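Fold it.
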Amino acid sequence: MTEEHEALREAVRALSDAKIAPRAAEIDETAEFPWDVYEALRASGFHAIHIPEDFGGEGGDALAACLVIEEVARACASSSLIPAVNKLGTLPLMLASDETQLKTYLPEVASGEAMFSYALSEREAGSDAAAMKTRAVAVGDDWVLNGQKSWISNAGVSKYYTVMAVTDPDAGPKGISAFVVHADDEGFSLGAPERKLGIHGSPTREILFDNCRIPGDRIVGAPGTGFQTAMRTLDHTRITIGAQAVGIAQGALDVATAYAKDRQQFGKSISSFQGMQFMLADMAMKLEAARQLMYVAAAKSEREDDDLTFFGAAAKCFASDVAMEITTDAVQALGGAGYTKDWPVERMMRDA
């Protein structure tokens, strides 16, 4: 961790404490996208820190992106999906697009004029993503898309979508291609917002294609390379969800520790009881293990190490499990208070 990374963490934490944490409960309650938070992140360059400097961005490396997401998630998990989804949506282009396409889209994301979502999953093609049914057919110089995509984060607020679709049904995964679809393309529409347990401030919706015609130059990379691009993208971006989980867990541990020090029972702070000390120590231990695994995975992402696929998946899986455990324990540490919306740990538990 360089001095620049530490300075970045401090800057994002200061912004999160001042502008995001005070809004987190309301964002959860209203389930509305936090445009004010987006503007605060954009003004600081934290909304899409991964965009290279050549395209007007901050040029942050993989660890920098994870630090931003971690610190924002510590205050508000919904808001942390702003930088996370922007990276998820644009990374396929950064991996596979030509210079012309990059110059078309990345500067808009870097400036905050546009957000970018990622569309891979379908109703019957979740983990088995290669079983997708959405089709893209060449018609003249254009492509015509038909089908649907499910669980699309920030659908409805993003201007652009990286969409995977079948272009050669007989070629299996090698018959899948990637495209950029615009929110105002004719034939593109949105499903109803999903009613989720948590992360209410980040809309999740289906996106639908009904003879959605797009120009031929919107294909990302060569035809048939979309599935490979999608999998490479997930190798790099699973780590960002690990960062989100670490941030949620840190926020819950902070609240639980402060409450235990302040809460008095039997004439003393409950933090003086060994049972509580054991619980908090285990929470901190597991959190730090998840954080270090996530940081190692981020370094491997930056270097594009051969074992990135394992470490990216491991960081996401382990950190997510740890976040679930820590937030659940945090609710218990606060007792009855933890079960109420007067305290943030029940929200953090749902977000985890």
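The first strand starts at residue 116 and ends at 119.
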